[in-house]
Amino acid sequence: MSDALVQHLIDVANAPSVEALWSLHSDKMADYGFDRLIYGFTRYRSGGSLGDPQDWVVLTNQSPDYMKVFIDEGLYFHAPMLRWALENNGACSWRWMATPGNLTAAEERVAEFNRSMGVTAGYTISFRSVSARTKGAIALTARPGLSQDDVEQIWLRAGNEIIVLNNVLHLKLLTLPYQGQRTLTKRQKEVLQWVGDGKTTADIALLLGLTSATVEKHLRLAREALDVETTAQAVLKAAFYNQMFVLEPDGAI
Q1: How many angstroms separate the CA atoms of 179 and 55, rounded?
Q2: Are residues 192 and 87 in the same domain?
Q3: Structural contact between residues 137 and 85, judged by C-beta atoms closer than 8 angstroms
Q4: Cα separation of 236 and 233, whole Å?
Q5: Which helix (H) or strand (E) holds 58?
Q6: What is the span of the domain harbouring residue 224?
Q7: pLDDT digit string (tens) for 56-100?
Q8: Are residues 80 and 128 in the same domain?
Q9: With contact defined as beta carbons under 8 Å apart, do 244 and 192 qualify?
């Protein structure tokens, strides 16, 4: 293992935020020839559903125009490599899509959209799940000008390194606070933490110097922000995304 790769892994291990980690990883993948990435993770998979997109962890450096159609307009639902990732673990060449009979008519339309956006060559890595409710994967799109044959040569030379680096990214992301579209205020996090510690509303009011009504208001707003019905569900969802008991970075107030 080269000194540069060791230093990159050290930097990844010490990344203090999702944003810092994603910047490191995006730059590293670009070094291999993959300049556009989409990482996705859900804890709410159930049958054929991946849950509410607002609850997904989605990180990308794809263009806003691409993501608007792919995610916001629901094209992902028929994405062929997403189907592959849901059914498999490991890495798969996008050459799989060119094999006759592998794609449905709806998936062919997604493939055509990808070609129109210059998303033509790459690999998908599907991470092994430890729960039937979770799934994570990343799509690595090769930079313009690289063919799938070029990508296969990259993979022959450095495929194992790329797989390891992406798995390290995935595991590190699971440890970092992520808010996405479900944003809690500092006070909402605080009251949920006390609930997680087994405190009653009256206990929390005493501990924070608030009225019980104010504590109830913060709990209600936390439930609304997380789109859940009960406080227990709010605690669970906040814990899933590491929004509770978070150590603030040095110098934070």
Answers
A1: 9
A2: no
A3: yes
A4: 5
A5: strand 57-60
A6: 186-240
A7: 889 999 999 999 999 888 899 899 999 999 999 999 999 999 889
A8: yes
A9: yes
- Copy the structure tokens of residue 139: 């799509």
Q: How far apart are CA 124 and CA 139, in angstroms?
A: 4
Q: Are residues 140 and 19 in the same domain?
A: yes
Number of domains in the chain: 2
Among 163, 29, 137, which residue's Cα sits nearest to residue 81?
137
Whole-prediction pTM value? 0.85
Distance CA 222, CA 192 (A): 8
User: For residue 65, is it within any domain?
Assistant: yes
Name residue 7's amino acid.
Q
CA 140 to chain centre: 14
Domain end call among 173, 204, 230: 173
**92: how many CB neighbours lie within 10 A of its CB?**
18
**Spatial separation of the C-alpha atoms in residues 81 and 96, rounded to whole Å:** 9
Q: 104 and 20, same structural domain?
A: yes
